[in-house]
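hey so i finally got around to running both of the ones u sent me last week. sorry it took forever, my laptop kept dying halfway thru and i had to restart like 3 times lol. anyway pasting them below in the order u listed, first the sequence line then the structure token line for each. didnt double check formatting much so if smth looks off just lmk and ill redo it

first one:
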Amino acid sequence: MTDFAAAIGLVLVIEGAFYAAAPSLGKFMMRQGLAASDNQLRICGLAALAVGVGIVWLARS
């Protein structure tokens, strides 16, 4: 459970730093996401999931 809490904390740090550094870019990316089709978002989500699993696997081994 400690690792999960640390992971959530890191996500919030990265997201917060991104929006603090470039809020207009964040808004632009949100508009692009709204304009994307469900399949595009699904493929990007699956790709992000695979990359994330790979990073965790490499970091933990």
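and the second one:
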Amino acid sequence: MEPSNHTRVTDFIMQGLFDHPQHQRLIFGLFLCFYMTAIMGNSLIIGAIAIHPPLHTPMYFFIANLALVDILCSSSVLPKMLKNLFQEKKTISFDGCIAQLFAFTLSSGTELVLLTAMSYDRYVAICHPLRYVNLMSKDICISLAAGVWAVGTINSLVHTLLMLRLDFCGPNLIRHFFCEIPPVLALSCSSTYLNEIMIFMADIFLAMVNFLLTTVSYSFIIIAIFKIQSSKGKQRAFSTCSSHLLVVSLYYSTIIYTYIRPTSSYSLDKDKMVAIMYTLVTPTLNPVIYSLRNNEIKVAIRKILPFNTK
């Protein structure tokens, strides 16, 4: 028996971020500035870590991976959204929608696992400093990073393939500004039971388990910091993980609001606004958070800027 392609919809129409934008040029300019800042900021972080030997440590290796994930996240969504702002009919092809869904799901799943790996790195650095070199060797860091990207890729591939097996007969209006799983799934005219089961499993294993592991890591970190006698030592220990803790808080607050809920409780209009946080605002803020109080990154960035002055 030959497999058949039941997909009847060849393209989708995006509702966009705003139903009736009154200040389209202002919105375009604002979002373009955020996007360019996110790309340049994260690229500077990657470049600074690559060329500055003092930053060739496990912590900065994972920060470079996070910057790469943030570039992928923003670039999977924002260029098409910016283009649609000046189009009367905001369309995306079926193949383009699936590609966007794959890229975004890859970046979001990878970031969840990566933040856990980063929290483990901080746990080892603060709770087992004498064993840090052995427990976070170069080979172990590369293996962890490869595992992180493998988990994100497999998760994204599973959701994408499950989406491809569905029938889309119409309507084809996506109530969002990009192809995310819940609003696309709502348009299917065939059973989405298996998709919802896999989404639930991803919520448990990617979101809940990683959140729990990150929480456990920071519980041990906080206990270890309180055991430090000198206030200066406590401040130094906390400063090594404060940036990561802030990034974790920003990312998980939006992810939990959007995904850790029953499908029936989704409010797509509100979710569009929250999606701006994790597709644009968070990738823009992450480089700022990691470089604002980090003198080593500041020194490295000055070395690669063309207008560097000593």
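quick thing i noticed on the 2nd:
DSSP finds ten helices and three strands in the chain.
anyway thats it, ttyl
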